[in-house]
Amino acid sequence: MTIQAISRRRILQTAVALPVGGALIGGFSRPAKAAPVKLRLATPFNTDPKLSPTKVFYDKFSECLKRNCDDQIVIELFPDSQLGSDADLISQLKFGSVDMMMAGFAIWATVLPEIGVLDLGYVFQDFNHFARALDGTVGKAIEASIGEKSGIMVLGWSQSFGARNILTKKLVTVPEDLANMRLRSLPTPAVVETVRAMGGLPTPMPIGEAYVSLQTGLVDGIEHDAPTVLAAKFFEAAKFYCLTQHTFQAIPPLLSKRSFERIPANLREGFLAAAKEAVLHERAMALVAEAEAIDELKRKGVTITACDRSLFEKRVHPLWNDYVSKNPKAKTLLDGITQYRA
């Protein structure tokens, strides 16, 4: 039997060439990096940053996650209701089959009716009032309720790209102008009753049916923010946009607690900080997007009309007490919102 001599130099070369348990850095072995945690974010919005709150949030969130968590958490965006309607996403989010959701918060009133108070007309004075209340005790109370009821985390209070206003086929400047007008509204009690109190005839329907309904005359108008009116091309069928500013809508990023538990403990603080930063960025960009959308609607021949909001507010205000009487838990939220008024 022949025994081959192996030099000390050869042994060292072999040791360098064959790392144990991971990659070599400076001649030392380091454990291989774990595969990134992938989270799916579903939304009904598109991917146009001038029209989509989700896209603006997503881009900033991804940027901040890369900085805070070193590519160890990846967010996959599924826009345009690819994974289902808002109602479908609620159940998927509860069970963790969808990790994150970002849509109009009004749909959650079907789970917690008291949340509908956020969408009552003229509850908020403006987006500054909105931010004070939802960053404060009102938001904290809602976060606790939705977490306990559904196992969902609110990552921050993003907002719609502008207030909701009234787009119609005829000029509207005062509540009386809405008489006998059928207006598409969100299919939630707070929004339906707000439209009724303002003077119109609420016609609840999914947003996907609104364009054809405007074209065919099934409805005479729609209540929505300017970027949505622009994105969905509602302006092609109705040319008068009255700035009633009756609601200021929350569009928060929501996360399943089951999905949050998949994130390694050492990355969770960075994840939450990234979400907070992205929410604040989205809020700032929302105001820019609203102004740009209104200017674009003007260029497309839409008549933009200011109005005396107090005339509409006087008609809607009694609705607050009616809503609270039917949903007693909403009183605490409404009182809290009122306390944050300027």
Task: Write structural notes for this entry.
With 342 residues, this protein is of the alpha/beta class. The protein has two domains: 37-160 and 250-291, D-Maltodextrin-Binding Protein, domain 2 (3-Layer(aba) Sandwich), CATH 3.40.190; 164-248 and 297-337, D-Maltodextrin-Binding Protein, domain 2. The protein is built from twelve helices and 13 strands. The chain has helices at 8-17, 53-69, 86-95, 127-135, 137-150, 189-198, 210-216, 226-231, 257-260, 265-299, 309-326, 330-339, and strands at 22-25, 28-31, 37-42, 73-78, 100-102, 152-154, 164-168, 182-185, 201-204, 221-224, 240-247, 253-256, 303-305. The strands form three sheets. A six-stranded mixed beta sheet has the order 9-8-10-7-11-13. The chain has a five-stranded mixed beta sheet with strand order 4-3-5-12-6, with helices on both faces. β1 (22-25) and β2 form a beta hairpin. The longest helix is centred in the C-terminal third of the chain and has 35 residues, at 265-299. The N and C termini lie far apart (95 Å). The relative contact order is 0.17. The model is unreliable at 1-31 (pLDDT under 50).
